[in-house]
């Protein structure tokens, strides 16, 4: 509320009287200078998000409006001492000029369920940074599978078919998402700290043991099992924890964190391509392990939850498949399934595709780095746009762009290096949202305290797409006598079905007549 004073109304020194409230029947006295002075004010509703007050100093100038978030637990009219000794005045008084400057400016949002979110602040952005670092060391390695596969296929496992080798990385990607079925509910109940630390240990063990692998079952156990479980223990909490701190800005916050996978996907292939001919396979993987150690330590220290822990009951730690009764959630999950089914095919085969078409070994490995560089921008920018134009809307547009890229660029590329590079840049940008926006879309369908459960349950189904996508693509490649047109056609079909599903999910929720509404 704002009160206006004329200069003639300003009392002079020595004749200021205390104005009592209408309910105050006691006599008033004139306070000495330096004592707390009050003026009548109407107490705003304590349920309102922010109070506004106009302060006056000696009656000459209006001070800036200060916005302070109301506390529902406060009793109306009662003066309160806030955290850190800050003072909230009672209904009958305004704070002095000095105390008003001490009141912190807080920004937050409240969702439809009454949950509040900081939407920023040091703690929240440190969680985003921790998630970013964790995804460098987990999804960054997942995005490097093309380099690993191309090297293993031509060295340690050169006697095995592409389809057989594809199963190693299929299991790797499968467990990265499948293990979330149990990790998500545990995250909701107990928080992320133990999960992230356990994942860091497994990833470090994988990278160190990788230098000793020579047999097929070695790679399956180390990369497929240990690497997949370790990546899942990091990936699920890293994404879910962000939802505890952001609501309106969740898209951009998740997008920033998800760029960690792209950064790792750029650094690791380039480093391996340079290190393989100089120090060999074993020491090259150990150098990558050292980089991962730094990033994973940051993740262990910074990723945290804001919600209280839940008791270890069945309903808190077990997945819940009853949520598939919601048709929007079911369609969204199916859409992500087909999107991920197609996503890992280019990630796995773009380097070997370039090698097969006469591109130099150096540039072939760099193709994957170029794709991941495009993905870096494709994870952050669509996340920012999604907060304003709608998460599902942005996902639909980027999935459609992935479909067009594969059909119009990769399929006719053949041995054209410029077309390959253009494809890697555009597809990398468009496919970035496949990782950064899908979790945000899922969070839009549930309460925040159930986010881990919904996310993990959805990706349990999605994981079967990542398990079978690469082996199927490898088998198609074998059946087509080493020609890539069949593999690329499979990718196009996956994105086409995924586009139909996510579009249908939005239309079921908002209605056919509001097809262009922000959602």
UniProtKB/TrEMBL annotation:
Protein name: MFS general substrate transporter
Keyword list, A-Z: Membrane, Transmembrane, Transmembrane helix
InterPro entries tied to this protein: MFS, MFS_dom, MFS_trans_sf, Proton-linked_MCT
Superkingdom of origin: Eukaryota
Compositionally biased intervals (Polar residues): 1-10, 19-31, 66-79
Similarity field: Belongs to the major facilitator superfamily. Monocarboxylate porter (TC 2.A.1.13) family.
Topology of this chain in the membrane: Multi-pass membrane protein
Domain Major facilitator superfamily (MFS) profile, chain residue ranges per copy: 126-519
GO molecular function, one term: transmembrane transporter activity
Keyword Signal: no
Region (Disordered): 1-102
